[in-house]
Write a structure and sequence with these properties.
The complex is a heterodimer of chains A (611) and B (793).
Chain A: E1 15-21, E2 30-35, E3 38-42, H1 68-71, E4 74-76, H2 82-85, H3 88-95, E5 101-104, H4 105-126, H5 134-141, E6 144-147, E7 152-154, E8 159-165, E9 173-179, E10 182-186, E11 210-214, H6 225-241, E12 245-249, H7 255-270, E13 276-278, H8 282-292, H9 299-305, E14 316-318, E15 330-334, H10 342-351, E16 358-361, H11 370-375, E17 380-382, E18 388-390, E19 394-397, H12 406-416, E20 420-424, H13 428-442, E21 445-447, E22 455-457, E23 465-467, H14 469-478, E24 493-497, E25 500-504, H15 506-513, E26 521-529, H16 534-548, E27 554-556, E28 562-564, E29 567-573, E30 580-588, H17 592-603
Parallel strand pairs in A: 3-4, 4-5, 5-6, 10-11, 11-20, 12-15, 12-16, 13-14, 13-15, 16-19, 20-21, 23-25
Antiparallel strand pairs in A: 1-2, 1-22, 2-3, 7-8, 8-9, 9-10, 17-18, 24-25, 26-30, 27-28, 28-29, 29-30
Helix pairs in contact in A: 3-5, 4-5
Chain B: H1 3-17, H2 26-42, H3 45-51, H4 54-64, H5 72-86, H6 89-97, H7 100-105, H8 119-132, H9 136-144, H10 147-154, H11 160-173, H12 184-197, H13 200-219, H14 226-237, H15 249-259, H16 262-274, H17 280-301, H18 315-327, H19 329-346, H20 358-373, H21 381-390, H22 394-406, H23 417-429, H24 435-450, H25 464-480, H26 485-502, H27 506-514, H28 517-523, H29 530-545, H30 558-561, H31 563-574, H32 578-593, H33 597-600, H34 603-615, H35 620-638, H36 660-669, H37 672-680, H38 685-702, H39 715-728, H40 741-750, H41 753-761, H42 771-782, H43 786-790
The chains are: A alpha/beta (611), B mainly alpha (793).
Chain lengths: 611, 793
């Protein structure tokens, strides 16, 4: 049995961040945050590039016995993309996390569709048996608590979270996590410029201790999306004009809707008659959700919604498998998005041989998929049964992914005004550049841990302490009124009881706790070379102190001892050496400062008396 | 190695060695390592290196680069790769000759380069060493190269992955000592793993050395790294050496139990109770520790808790426990949840303490639930404060319900049942219960109902059940109308399970039919949430199988008039989502199997109607389920598949309802054959696989068919074959037409079904997953625009 070290351990609560995914990569996001004793998991993503256990985060580093519910206070999902939520059913139903999972309402609605879609592909294509089931997805979704934007949600008495608009996809949110006076903001993926169907990310000046931000385009200033959209429409239009067919492989939700709106408006404007199809029954449901969550889309869509619902498409029709063989031009949206199985791959195989046709890949494809192969320029593909498929159709790549670019990230940091920043979801080299820029411009520390590395933030926890009125009055009576912003020393007794802290006068503390007072005195012996008698010695000490400490009350008592406030000084002869006199100095804790000052002074010796 | 791969490899190595070329993402390098691992495991690494000199070139080239030019990814990959090769001793010697290994793993290598600050590089370095430390030369190398020292310091690495891997490797070489380890926690972790692996004599020696150090740690307050110390002690105790020997281990554990904080003591106590051999006194102490929080709860809320004996002599511990429970809400919640989970884990184990205080545990679970829902009456000020801390706490509720559910097993007395059922009803009724709490309450209720002891006969539900059921159905009714889909769904799942087990019992039927539950379930077939619709379909299917759909004759329900079968067919043809449609076909399959009355009325019409809808469905799981329905139908008409095992008991043959040609003609007319052939060429593999099995079954059943002549070279057969070929090529628009039985048989024989079966058994991405595909992709990616690489979703 291999026993890895565990991330969660006992000790002083501090703010610690541990990316197990998204640390210097864009694979799968899963970040653990420990803040003031509370442990939160930010996203629970899956790596699409692996087909084995490596696709899920290794949760054994968190705890061995599988009872994650005891360790984690909650899981927060930023948005519905699988690299942010794909491991959720595995985590909750197979590893056994039983606590709450927070996400926004649209994410809650859409997440199970994508998980189900992915499960079906995995089981269909690879025949994977050890994969989560539909029932598990459902049971996992039952653990979800949906939140509204800007609604403060109490996870428990101490931990609260709040969602902000992120504009990356429908329902994407940034989350503020707060325990007492400490807070962390996690951006998830976000976009600072509004696009055709979503608005821009926004957060208030919440001044968190730490901002954990994505950094996909850390060094890029992206051209306007308008250009890419124009380009896309031009390509589609040209292809259908010359009688070709256009295949657009998409995942059921997200990019698909954006492109549908784009084509629908273009077809309307140009009065085109070429059919556009969407290949699965999912459109209906997807569009239903876009309608349902209209408040999450951008202003333009919301405004026009009154006149015409943007998601009720006139030109886009449901696809039937037989249509693929129809002659003449058409545009088809088909799932899945990486051309790795199912409908999209089947249509691709039919159309690939004709150079008039075109396939447009609107998103990222992982290695091994047909999508990845054709994007990297491969034109002869080996298919099952030793068949070779020659790709003559045109292959186009268009990135429509909605992430903040370098400017946008800086803008968000400026908006939130964090005490420190931590970069995730990006490449190491680009992160390094951005890190320096952030540190220079905002004068805050910026971290970029790799996967597995823990960042511990110095925290100064503030603990509220109640002060009794009696003590305050007593202090006021002693001196001037307190000045604002100027610290003043106050003596009292701190009582910790029922997990609250109170500062009271020592008298009151004694009374409350039923204790008797003990007097504690500090004593010190100062040895001085002096042959004179003790009484004479004491007198000399008296006059020396009288002249040095003009502001204090110095007294020479009848028994020969000298006092300065509560400090008592007595002179005595040395038991063995008559040439040495011993000064016994004693004081109470209230006069500690003065006491040590006096001993230091006396140790220097007494001034020579003028003979 | 495949010749195609050998051909591609030099180009790839050249790309990897060239710092100016962007390399594909980490996953590709990982997969490449996977492949090399398979290759070296299957054959000689030395031969591999000799046949592909580019590999050694790559390793030496990486060392020759200026340290600042090295890509951390490629460096890490090279380190792992070198280790993989050096795992075989002859290959190790070969690489050593060129000083390659020393260059890569020695002090002058990457250890001293700037790239060392990248965790991936450190991790690759450890992985490489871990692979090569397989043989004496490898271990020797580890000692001489100074690697062990570096490993010791890597145990405290900032990356948990690196630190963990370093510890694992240290454990592997067993060259460690307590003093050398940089931190107590890490040292303890290493030791824990070591004890888990080493042989008995070693364990004794190690423990002898270690016990004074552990004793020393136990003197500190608070105990440092308590969590790791618990793991260590348990790991030592698991060794069979200590089963009889007395070497202070048990005393140490007893001492530790008494001085750890309640939360930490819980996991130690659980560990002790799970041990195979352990002194009885320690077990009792551990069990007391584990029970203490519950005892405190019972003391604070009732007068006389549980049996005496268990709860005496707990005064010292219990005051600490009370302090913890009352110190803060989160401490109280944390400790209770942990205790409940520990006891839940212990409950089903054979080595759980005996006697097992079932009654006390049930009482405690009930009280905790009452504290949570506010119905408990505290008998002391502590009780009052517990009420405050636990009121409305769904986390504790969830844990307590899980625990209460497991306690249903082995319950011997019925004494507590009224209390249990009462608290479950309270929870199910309470408007404050969250959806998750309700789900767990339903599950616990189900367990208690199903585990009811029935002494006289299995038909007797016991005296409590009828009473309880009468109160349960109104609650279930209310929950079926909940605004949360989660709650409606959990209620339907509960109903389905309960009906499946109890559908035949008179008391249950009476209570169910007296309620609105069947009507509401019917209404939920039109729920806006697809999950709920699917669960409603399953529930209605179950109710109907037991003759409990009830409301059939009531006027004013037009949907009822057309019958449930009509409603389900409507869902199958119209529902926009897969779950309800899948559920319908599953219910239909069950009905067909059990000869449900509605189906038996006209089975052929039923099968034909269902198939017509299923064949059009876009969801492959619906189509696959449709094939299952066909299989059941075929078994009913043609008999069970022939046993392939010569020793199998031969079942009595089902006689087909008529002569075989007639049966086959019916199958063709019902479009079953058309459906199965189409499914064989389905683009979704599981559908094709199922269809293939089905056709094989059909071929087998018709093989010795006597009454049929195969047509010779009739043109009809040729056209059938031509159609099938077109279907295979993906053009499925043309129908098969009405087949004659003879044509069907000919078509069945002409297809290479075994070949299909073999191909379909392979996962459909085996081509993409092949090493050639990986190498091609990596080479092709080099030339592509950077934007593609950087992009993501």
């Amino acid at each position: 049995m291999e026993v890895p070290l565990l991330w969660l351990c006992e000790g002083v609560p501090s703010t610690r961040i541990w990316p197990t995914g998204a640390g210097q990569d864009v694979g799968r996001s899963c970040i653990l945050v420990s803040i003031a004793g509370k442990n939160v998991m930010l996203d629970c993503g899956m790596h699409m590039g692996f087909n084995d256990d490596r696709r899920f985060p290794d949760f054994s580093y968190i705890t061995q016995n599988g009872r994650l519910t005891d360790f984690l206070d909650c899981v927060i999902i930023s948005h519905f993309h699988l690299d942010h939520c794909g491991a959720l059913p595995y985590f909750s139903e197979m590893v056994g996390y039983d606590g709450p999972i927070y996400m926004t309402h649209p994410t809650q609605a859409i997440c199970p569709i994508l998980l189900e879609d992915y499960r079906k592909i995995a089981v269909d294509k690879k025949g994977e048996a050890n994969f989560f089931t539909s029932q598990m997805i459902k049971d996992c979704m039952k653990k979800v608590v949906a939140v509204h934007l800007h609604q403060t949600v109490q996870v428990d008495d101490e931990l609260e979270i709040k969602a902000y608009y992120a504009g990356h996809v429908l329902g994407a949110a940034m989350f503020q996590i707060k325990v007492g006076s400490e807070s962390v903001v996690y951006t998830g993926d976000y976009n600072m410029t509004p696009d055709r169907h979503l608005g821009a990310a926004w957060i208030d000046k919440c001044r968190p201790n730490l901002l954990i931000t994505e950094s996909t385009y850390a060094t890029t200033i992206r051209d306007s999306k308008r250009c890419r959209e124009r380009d896309f429409l031009k390509k589609v239009h040209e292809t259908v004009e010359r009688g070709g067919k256009v295949l657009i492989p998409v995942f059921a939700l997200g990019r698909a809707q954006e492109l549908c709106i784009l084509l629908e408006t273009f077809w309307e404007r140009m009065n085109l008659k070429v059919p556009i199809y969407f290949s699965t029954g999912l459109t209906e449901k997807a569009n239903h959700y876009y309608k349902l969550f209209i408040t999450w889309t951008n202003q333009k869509i919301r405004k026009t919604f009154v006149q015409r619902n943007m998601f009720e498409f006139k030109h886009i029709k449901a696809f039937d498998r037989a249509f693929a063989d129809n002659p003449g031009p058409m545009v088809v949206f088909a799932t899945p998005g990486m051309l790795h199985a199912g409908q999209s791959l089947q249509i691709f195989r039919k159309w690939a041989g004709n150079e008039k046709n075109m396939v447009i890949m609107p998103g990222y494809c992982v290695q091994g998929t047909v999508g990845h192969k054709i994007l990297s320029g491969q034109r002869k593909l080996e298919m099952e049964g030793r068949q070779v498929l020659e790709v003559k159709m045109q292959v186009e790549y268009m990135s429509f992914s909605a992430h903040a670019d370098a400017k946008g990230i800086m803008q968000l940091v400026g908006q939130a005004e964090p005490e420190s920043v931590l970069l995730v979801h990006g490449e190491a080299k680009k992160m390094e550049f951005l890190r320096q820029k952030i540190e220079q411009e905002f004068r805050v520390s910026c971290y970029m841990p790799a996967n597995g590395e823990t960042v511990t933030l110095p925290t100064s926890p503030s603990i509220p302490v109640g002060i009794s009125l009696g003590l305050l009055k007593q202090e006021m009576a002693q001196g001037l009124l307190p000045e604002a912003k100027k610290p003043r020393l106050l003596h009292g007794t701190l009582i910790m009881k029922d997990s609250s802290f109170r500062l009271v006068s020592s008298e009151q503390a004694l009374k409350e706790l039923g204790l008797a007072e003990h007097q504690l005195r500090f004593t010190c012996r100062v040895h001085l070379q002096d042959t004179r008698k003790e009484q004479e010695m004491a007198l000399r000490v008296y006059s020396h102190l009288k002249s040095t400490l003009k502001d204090h009350c110095v007294q020479h008592l009848p028994d020969g001892s000298v006092t300065v406030e509560s400090i008592l000084i007595q002179a005595a002869a040395h038991s063995e050496d008559p040439g040495i006199k011993v000064l016994l100095v004693s004081w109470t804790y209230q006069d500690e400062e003065l006491g040590s000052f006096l001993t230091t002074l006396l140790k220097k010796g007494l001034p020579q008396t003028p003979s | 190695m495949d010749p195609e791969c050998s051909r591609l490899l030099p180009a790839l190595c050249a790309v990897l060695a060239d710092p100016s070329q962007a390399v594909a993402d980490d996953t590709c390098l990982e997969k490449l390592l996977d492949w090399f691992k398979t290759v070296t495991e299957a054959g000689s690494s030395l031969l591999l290196l000799q046949e592909n000199p580019c590999l050694v070139d790559l390793l030496s080239h990486v060392l020759d680069l200026k340290p600042q030019d090295v890509s951390p990814r490629v460096l890490s990959f090279s380190l792992c790769l070198a280790g993989t090769f050096a795992a075989q001793e002859d290959c190790f010697e070969y690489l050593q000759q060129g000083q390659l290994l020393l260059g890569l793993f020695g002090e002058a290598g990457p250890l001293s380069w700037a790239a060392w600050s990248v965790p991936t590089v450190r991790s690759g370095w450890i992985r490489g060493l871990r692979s090569l430390a397989q043989h004496p030369s490898g271990l020797h190398f580890l000692g001489n190269s100074g690697a062990v020292d570096a490993l010791f310091s890597l145990q405290g690495d900032s990356s948990l992955f690196v630190a963990s891997a370093a510890s694992q490797l240290l454990v592997h070489v067993l060259a460690l000592s307590m003093q050398a380890a940089p931190q107590v926690t890490q040292a303890l972790n290493v030791l824990t793993t070591t004890f888990g692996r080493c042989h008995s004599p070693w364990t004794e020696v190690l423990w002898g050395q270690l016990s004074p150090l552990v004793a020393h740690l136990l003197e500190s307050d608070p105990i440092p790294a308590a969590h790791s110390l618990v793991d260590l002690l348990l790991s030592v105790a698991r060794s069979p050496v200590f089963a009889s020997a007395d070497c202070g281990l048990w005393e140490t554990m007893a001492r530790m139990l008494s001085c750890l904080s309640p939360t930490q003591a819980g996991s130690l106590a659980l560990g002790i109770l799970k041990l195979q051999h352990c002194p009885q006194a320690l077990r009792s102490q551990a069990f007391r520790v584990l029970l203490q929080p519950l005892v405190c709860i019972l003391r604070a809320t009732t007068q006389a808790p549980g049996p005496p004996g268990l709860l005496d002599e707990t005064s010292a511990g219990s005051s600490m426990m009370v302090d913890t429970l009352l110190s803060s809400k989160s401490a109280c919640v944390g400790l209770l949840c942990q205790t409940l989970a520990h006891l839940e884990e212990l409950q089903p184990l054979p080595q759980r303490p005996s006697p097992w205080p079932q009654t006390l545990l049930v009482e405690a679970a009930v009280i905790i639930l009452q504290l949570c829902d506010g119905s408990a009456v505290p008998s002391s000020s502590e009780g009052g404060r517990l009420c405050g801390a636990l009121a409305g706490c769904s986390r504790v509720q969830r844990a307590a319900l899980d625990f209460l559910g497991t306690l249903s097993q082995g319950i011997s007395s019925r004494e507590l049942m009224p209390q249990v059922f009462a608290v479950l009803l309270e929870t199910l009724e309470s408007p404050a219960s969250s959806p998750m709490v309700l789900k767990k309450a339903f599950q616990a209720t189900l367990r208690w109902l199903l585990d009811l002891p029935s002494p006289s006969s299995c038909l007797d539900l016991g005296p409590h059940a009828p009473l309880f059921l009468r109160e349960l159905f109104p609650v279930l009714q209310k929950r079926l109308c909940s605004p949360c889909w989660e709650v409606r769904d959990s209620a339907l799942e509960f109903l389905t399970h309960l009906t499946a087990c109890w559908g035949g019992e008179a008391d249950f039927r009476e209570a169910l039919l007296a309620s609105e539950v069947p009507k509401l379930t019917w209404q939920l077939l039109r729920d806006p949430e697809s999950y709920v619709r699917a669960s409603a379909v399953t529930a209605m299917g179950q109710l109907s199988s037991q003759g409990l759909e009830a409301v059939s004759e009531s006027p004013g329900h037009p949907e009822v008039q057309q019958g449930l079968i009509g409603e389900l067919l409507h869902i199958l043809s119209m529902d926009s989502e897969g779950f309800p449609r899948r559920a319908v076909v599953r219910v239909f399959t069950e009905w067909l199997r059990d000869s449900h009355a509605d189906v038996a009325r006209d089975t052929e019409w039923f099968v034909a109607t269902v198939l017509q809808m299923v064949s059009q469905d876009l969801d492959w799981e619906v189509r696959a389920q449709g094939l299952e329905l066909v299989r059941v139908f075929l078994v009913q008409t043609l008999g069970q598949p022939n046993p392939h095992c010569p020793y199998a008991v031969t079942l009595p043959k089902v006689t087909p309802p008529g002569p075989l040609p007639e049966v086959l003609r019916t199958l063709c007319q019902l479009q079953i054959i058309d459906f199965a052939f189409r499914a064989l060429f389905d683009c979704d593999r599981p559908v094709a696989q199922k269809a293939c099995d089905l056709l094989l079954f059909l071929r087998e059943k018709t093989a010795p068919c006597s009454g049929l002549q195969e047509p010779g070279n009739s043109s009809d057969v040729t056209s059938v074959e031509a159609t099938l070929h077109r279907w295979q090529a993906g053009e499925q628009s043309q129908p098969l037409g009405n087949l004659e039985p003879e044509e069907l048989l000919a078509a069945l024989r002409s297809l290479d079904l075994e070949g299909f079966q073999g191909r379909l058994a392979e996962s459909s991405d085996h081509v993409e997953k092949s090493p050639q595909s990986l190498l091609q992709d990596m080479l092709a990616t080099v030339a592509v625009l950077e934007e593609n690489v950087a992009d993501c979703y």
